[in-house]
Amino acid sequence: MTTINGYEQSDREEKLDILNLPSLEAEAKKIIPKGGFGYISGGSEDEWTLHENTTAFNHVQIIPRALTDMEQPTTSTSAFGIKLKTPIMMAPATAQGLAHSRGEEATAEGLAQAGGLMAQSTYSSTSMLIRQQLVKVHHNFSNYI
Known about the structure:
Blueprint: E1 2-4, E2 7-9, H1 21-31, H2 34-41, H3 48-58, E3 77-79, E4 82-84, E5 89-90, H4 103-114, E6 117-121, H5 128-134, E7 138-142
Parallel strand pairs: 5-6, 6-7
Antiparallel strand pairs: 1-2, 3-4
């Protein structure tokens, strides 16, 4: 455990067996310090928007297309004119350092390995310039004014 500016940060790195989002949340709760977990997993006030978003997400279905004529399947795609190896894109999530001491740097490493796209928040725990120097990943920036 690392403490920076009074905030505890986990240093743990381990493989997680994830079945779905609730199982990921249960595993994260064991690893992420209490304050950081509450900030990340909670919503504002009575959490109405969090509830509505979860309900809407649970109604989305992915329909597999088995036995279709796919001779050369690929996960590659493009977004914003950028060619990507995978359609995985990270939305701007602020203060990832509350979850882990490496914060956005570790997220960028994972996305670079997967060939995805990262959007970094104004309120990142890692400088975008420093992160760019350490990890080469396609990125966008979200500026909150």
